[in-house]
Structure formats: C-alpha cells, structure tokens
Amino acid sequence: MALNGIKVVEMLGLAPGPFCGTVLADFGATVTVVQKIEVTTLDVLSNGKKSISLNLKCPKGKQVFKKLMDSSDVIIDTYRPGVLEKLGLGPQDLMKTNPKLIYARLTGFGQTGLYKDKAGHDLNFIAMSGVLSMLRKDGQPPRAPVNILGDFAGGSLVCALGIVLALFERTKSGKGQVIDASMTEGAAYVANWIFRSKYLPIWMEEPGTSVLDGGYPNYNTYKTKDNKFMAVGALEEKFQSMFLKGLNISEEEFLVWEKNECDEKLKEIFLTKTQQEWCNIFKDLDACVTPVLDQENVKDHELHLSRKSFYVDENNLVSPEPAPRLSRTPGLASGKLPSVKPGQHTIEIMTSLGYKKPEIQELINNNSIYAHKKSNL
After folding, report:
1. Percent of the chain beyond pLDDT 70?
2. Does the predicted TM-score (pTM) go above 0.85?
3. How many CB atoms lie within 10 A of CB 197?
4. Hey, which residues are catalytic here?
C-alpha cells in the first residue's frame, strides 16, 4: 500500500483525530494510538491500529513516549495548543531528537490567533468558517449537516492531506515540519469554490433560494409514496427534458408553471409512487434523478454492488471502502480488522522499543504504563 513503512502516532481524541489516523492506516501506515491509562474505551475507529496506554504526567511514561516518537514519522496531536508543550512533548522537544518528524496539529481554531484557546465543536467551527451561513432556507436558522464539514472534511481529510504533502516534501529535504490544521480554515477551504463563485448567477439570491441549495424545483429532493426520497439534479436542458419525460409532463406545461407552483406540483407527483417505482422509471433515462439511499440499504444498491463500495464490519455496521482507489497500491479498510482494547499492544510496542520484561513490569507496577490483561509479558 502507498504508506507502507510509515509509522504514525495518534494521540487519542474525539472523531477528527481518529478518522485522520484511519485514513493513513487504510493506505498502509502503521498507526499507534496513545491514550491515558485511565481511559477504558477506544474510539469506534480503532480497528487496524495498535494501542499503548501511557501516563504522560510521570517522567517514566514520558520517557517511553519520547522513545516511541524517536522512531516515528508522524504524530497527530488533537489537544488544545500548548498542552503537549507543558508536558515537554511539543514540536521543539520531539523534533530535537527526531528532525524528520511530521508534527500534525489538528484543532478547531488553529495554533495561533485570538481563538486558539477557545473550546468549540463542529457547529462552531463551520459557523466561524462562513460556510454554515449558506445552509439555511426560508429565513430559518442554518442547520448543521451533522459533523461532516468541520470535523471530517475540514479537519480529518485536510490534516491527512497536509501529512501526505509533508511526507512527500521530506523525500526531497529530509526534514519534518509542523502542520497547523484548523477545522475552521479547513471547512472554509473545502468551500473554496463557493466563496469564489459568490457573484455568479447561481448564488445571487438568498440562501435556500438559489440553484444549488434547494431553491429550484429541478434541483431538489422529493418524498415518495413509501416515505423515502428521490434526488433531482436536472439542471441542464437535456437532463430537464429527460426528467419531464419520466414524469410524463410536457415541456410547454412545465414552462408555464410558476416557481412555487412547480415545486408543489412536483411534490404531489412524487408522492404518487414508491421510491423503487421511480427508480424503475428513471433507470434508463439520463435525467440526473437518483434515489436517496440510507445507511442501511446503501450497500445493496446496484451501483455499489458493481463496485464493491461498502462492506459490513465486525459490529454488523455498513462501512465504506477507502477512497480514492489507487490502481497499483489500493487501500485496505482497517475497519475489516478487529477493534483493539486500550493498552492491547503496550507490551509488544515496549518490547520493540528495546525494553526488557523486568523493566516493563516495573513500569506497569508504578503506573507509568498500562497493559491490557490479555497481553503476554
């Protein structure tokens, strides 16, 4: 796989950090999760990773961590700015002995600036990014698209991109660097096209009334007879023509409808058939009309079956395969591997770092490290 041989240390945190680590693990990196010894559970994205439990507040635990970092390529730090510096584990401390280390820092508002110490969640980050203001309609308050935009798109993926870029640059310079990944800035960057096309005709109206945000009847979603939904993206004339053909509506009839009237009529029409019936009608029409698939049935759709886009994990949950697909070095979903227990690999990792059994036992006894009870010593 593309990242085979790359060693990543992920500081256990909330969703953005673990998903960033999962992206790297899916493409071959060895990811070791470092967590506090009192933590009893790992994130749902722990599959395929290794786990070591350390007490970073005691000198011995800190010493183990530094030794681990001396042989690592990347660290994913999701703590607030300054937390690891106070422990003597900041970039200057770790890169002094490992100048090739890539120190990725993933936070809500970034490592500098007025908000660097402020708490926040995805909703706050996308609110401050300028993107949330676009997600509203009919004068109602903006609605959060769960935590996809800030945590995962602007956070995890942008941070993973930064890590891959830094790894590539290191092949030329031989040096590591610090990555300052702000979820607020990342969310804004993901929306770059929207910012830079603000004065195009498609955005000239109020949010919720423009072409691409549900303001037009031929680019919207509609409920079906069985309480499911269809997505209509028939923007261009050729697709609109096929769309109307599927609905058995003439072009002339459609053109005389007022915008609001058209929206209501389409709602009524879509309620006359089930989602599957509409799928059958539009199956052979190039009209940009598709079903809105839910998490339970998405894997069974013919598109995803034909590409094997999803799998079922150990908890019987539907999960997506890694993307994008690489022709020679494709990723392998770490979610297909067993989940890990806190401290499950502590002894294995300590041994690989050169610690002897008596030393490891002593560190366990003085609460510097924690090893899962099923680990062999």
Report:
1. 98
2. yes
3. 12
4. 121, 151
